[in-house]
Design a protein that fits this description.
The structure holds 2 protein chains of 2 kinds. Chain A is mainly alpha-helical. Chain A has one domain. Helix content of chain A is 62%, strand content 0%. The longest helix of chain A has 26 residues, at 63-88. Chain B is mostly helical. Chain B has one domain (7-330). In chain B, 61% of the residues lie in helices and 1% in strands. Chain B has helices at 31-50, 58-66, 73-88, 90-109, 114-131, 152-162, 177-180, 182-200, 203-206, 210-216, 224-237, 241-256, 263-282, 300-310, 319-330; strands spanning 10-11, 23-24. Classes of the chains: A mainly alpha, B mainly alpha. Chains A and B meet through helix 6, helix 9 and helix 11 of A and helix 1 and helix 4 of B.
């Protein structure tokens, strides 16, 4: 039986992710930064839901409410992926910045829908203390989701440590100062219409699919806010959530 | 498969520090890095599997102790000691084991730590091969290619060596030769697959009911569709166990020769290796037992596929050529 303290640790990590996402939402209050709000909001909600699933004491909403929320979230990111795919081709389906969020939302929706009655417990949510841990219906689907989540986490980590998230010249990209990564990416992409090419790396990095980085110019905002709003933080949250989600899916098979 | 995904976008970066020659800009990635990420993914999956409830039960310690059976005393005694230790500190030690494996995956995926993580993964794999798998049953006659011989975990170490981020400076005909050179890479491939052929023909594995029994023994706890596949496969080879063992051995010998064949024949043999690995993973190994719960790792199938891809003939564009392209780009 999985020790309760281990689940508590994962739940605590999720609370940290929720706090960071909430801070990002508050820091990016301006209208021009709304392009990343859905991602941060998704992280916030997923982290709260996962913390509540891992530790019963942190349960916030009924399962039905979470199913509705993640159903809507899945539909939202599916629409954004479809829009990305129309703009940038099929590569957006695998490499676009919305595709991982679609996978995360879908995994959460599946998790809440497929979580069977826990052994020795009465509610659906909450793995707390291990004694009430549920199992998932259609375990093959759980495995497929776990593989996808692991794949995106690995890819994100690789790209996080490569040049994909480097800090480009803000002026060169003609992006408004202070616009966070994905908004900047979309602005930059709008400035460079047409198909992307691997032999134009600056342009690739400025695409939505590449989630280019366009931090604030020095002096335009506090450094701590710039760091908080940097895409590295968002991607870090996504990696942590992907790993935790894969962990949850596998232990509930 | 090309060693360079987009040569036009190559820029010098991380050179020396990461030992990966050059890093292409944007999303461009060479084959070796892609395979490293595959290995990282399998390590991560391995890590999360280790967190399952089964691993926190006494059955896990008993499973470890069971691998000592039939091994020489010098091998078995440390396994027994380790199993006893794990049984007494199950929660703590299993959490440490799982976390180490998770961190190995994350470390390989994170470029600045790829060398350290690969080196650590070699040490960890060798330790698990001994203390967790009893050397894969190689010395006690229990090894079978159908159950992951010579031990799935040793394949992690082999892949870490072959995908080590350095180059010998000479063009390599396939990715696995870049770090260790062509003769060593070929020898490792040959030894691995010939040993698989040997294990397929050992008395225990060519005995009546050996193959069908192993397949039918995997259907417990599996989802209905997979259990049905396993039952169907078991009934198919019932009474044909010796023929199945011989057919497997022949396939393994053909695969072993792949790295010495001309390119077209080599590709055909590597495709055979991939197909055989996938079939072995699905049928006798039941997807590593992951869907049944209680699997400590995904077993050997995915690792053998990754290994076959590392030997896929490339266009021999290696580090020196990449560096030259980078210099031209910088100029």
């Amino acid at each position: 039986m999985i020790p309760a303290w281990l689940l508590d640790i994962f739940a605590a990590v999720m609370l940290v992710v929720a706090a960071v996402s909430a801070a990002r939402l508050m820091a990016a209050g301006r209208r021009s930064e709304a392009a990343t709000a859905d991602v941060d909001l998704a992280h916030l909600l997923m982290a709260i839901a996962m913390a509540g699933t891992l530790t019963a004491a942190l349960k916030t909403l009924p399962d039905t409410a979470w199913e509705v929320i993640f159903g809507l979230m899945t539909a939202w990111f599916a629409w954004r992926v479809w829009r990305d795919a129309r703009a940038n081709g099929a590569r957006a389906l695998a490499g676009g910045h919305c595709a991982p969020h679609l996978a995360h939302s879908g995994a959460m929706l599946y998790m809440f829908l497929a979580l069977g009655a826990p052994v020795g417990g009465s509610g659906m949510s909450g793995m707390g203390a291990g004694a009430t841990m549920g199992t998932l219906e259609y375990p093959a689907l759980a495995f497929v989701f776990a593989l996808i989540l692991v794949g995106y986490s690995i890819w994100d980590l690789d790209q996080l440590s490569a040049r994909r998230y480097r800090l480009p010249s803000v002026g060169a990209l003609a992006v408004p100062v202070g616009v966070p990564a994905m908004a900047a990416a979309e602005s930059a992409a709008a400035a460079f219409p047409g198909p992307l090419s691997a032999d134009d790396p600056d342009r690739m990095e400025a695409s939505p699919a590449a989630e280019a980085v366009a931090p604030a110019a020095p002096g335009s905002r506090p450094a701590s806010t710039a760091v908080l709003l940097s895409p590295g933080i968002a991607i870090g949250c996504r990696v942590v959530m992907g790993v935790t989600m894969a962990f949850m899916l596998v232990i509930m098979i | 498969m090309s060693d360079i995904a987009a040569a036009g976008g190559v820029r010098p970066a991380w050179r020396g520090r990461l030992g990966i020659g050059t890093q292409a800009a944007g999303t461009a990635m060479d084959t070796r890095r892609a395979l490293q990420l595959g290995l990282a993914g399998i390590w991560m999956l391995d890590g999360v599997l280790q967190y399952q409830s089964f691993m926190y039960s006494k059955a896990f310690a008993q499973m470890l102790a069971g691998t000592a059976d039939g091994n020489p005393y010098v091998i078995a005694r440390p396994i027994t000691w380790d199993a006893t230790l794990v049984e007494h500190h199950l929660a703590l030690l299993n959490t440490i084991f799982a976390t180490i494996q998770l961190l190995l995956g994350l470390g390989i995926a994170f470029r600045p730590t790829v060398r350290a993580a690969l080196a650590a993964s070699i040490a960890w794999s060798l330790g698990v091969w001994w203390f967790g798998e009893g050397l894969g049953g190689v010395l006690n006659g229990g090894a079978s290619p159908l159950n992951g011989a010579p031990g799935a975990v040793i394949l992690y170490a082999l892949l870490a060596v072959l995908l080590w981020p350095s180059d010998r400076g000479t063009p390599a005909p396939f990715t696995a030769a870049r770090a260790v050179g062509v003769p060593v890479a070929r020898a490792l491939w040959l030894v691995l697959w010939l040993s698989e052929a040997w294990f397929a023909l050992t008395p225990a594995n060519r005995a009546p009911q050996a193959v069908s029994g192993m397949i039918s023994g995997m259907d417990g706890g599996q989802p209905g569709w997979l259990a049905a596949i396993l039952r169907g496969a078991a009934s198919l080879v019932t009474g044909q166990d010796l023929a199945a063992s011989i057919a497997l051995a022949v396939a393994f010998v053909v695969i072993a020769a792949a790295v010495y064949l001309p390119e077209r024949a080599a590709k055909a043999a590597l495709v055979l290796a991939i197909v055989v690995s996938v079939v072995i993973w699905v049928i006798p190994q039941g997807l590593g037992g992951i869907l049944a719960g209680g699997a400590t790792d995904p077993n050997s199938g995915p690792l053998l596929v990754l290994l076959a891809l590392a030997y896929w003939p490339s266009r021999t564009v290696t580090a020196p050529a990449v560096a030259a392209a980078a210099e031209r780009s910088a100029a």
